[in-house]
Amino acid sequence: MSKRIHSFVRRAALVLAGISLGCGPLAAAPEELPPLTNISGSPRLPGKFVWGDLVTSDAAAARKFYGRLLGWTFLDYGTGPDAYTIAMNEERPLCGIVQAPPRAGTNGHPRWVGYISVPSVARAQKAVLKAGGKEFVAPRKFPKRGEQAIFADPEGAVFGVMTSSSGDPEDFLADPGDWIWIQLLCRDARKAAEFYRAVAGYEVAENSNSQRENDYVLVSEKFARATIMEIPKNNPQMRSAWLPFVRVKNVAASVTQAEQLGGKVLLAPRPDLFEGRIAVVADPTGAAIGLLEWTGTVKAGGAQP
User: Fold this and answer.
1) Residues in Cβ contact with 200 at an 8 Å cutoff, skipping those fewer than 6 apart
2) Interval 158-184: pLDDT, tens
3) The whole model's pTM is what?
């Protein structure tokens, strides 16, 4: 299977890890990736975050952490430095894991990268560059997966875009272990909202449920897909970034388990934040991930704002 491991993810991992790649071309022949969904007739859902990749300095440690904390299982593609692991929840593919140790003296660090479904990767690419973003990994097509690329917005938050060949995973009420939400933390929420409106065609709604100013919801086809929140001014060290959330059965128990597995608590549950049902932890390699205890009967990503 190693011959089919795609250089796209490897290149992305190296870029995000802070390793200089020069201008060498990608491999000439496209390599194989599995489709996002095997359900026939799946529609495309522009604006939905449909995939994620974890770029980490220790893939084995990440697998152990997420497997025990969230119950994920794993499918390996290849071995050695070009290995790519797909994580699954109840046989649903959720994300990929790729290893790329950061180069000394760079600001690369382990992180999650979410991919937005778009009708055209080429149009998204043009919109990113026109709006002041940066291209990290150029658009590339894969026979079964579709086309994808990785960019950074003007504040440096990294994200991917994808046009899936098989359609997108349907909207459903997330089970424990599934992705349930994603949030952008940034310095200028209004400008960020306009950037993602231009890139992915979102409608932008101000979050009237928030007690903070300049909180926005990104909406596509009447579905809330993500929120944008401003980083508090008293936290100048925090970097702009997308933060994905996974549904858990009990957030307090999950936080305790994350610490026992070598993770670090970045934001402990607090009564004033979503009634104490939300937390943020870092895995043992330093990648941040949100935990959300969802008690509603409606899709967390499907409610109209």
Assistant:
1) 46, 47, 116, 118, 124, 161, 218, 220
2) 999 999 999 899 888 899 999 999 999
3) 0.87
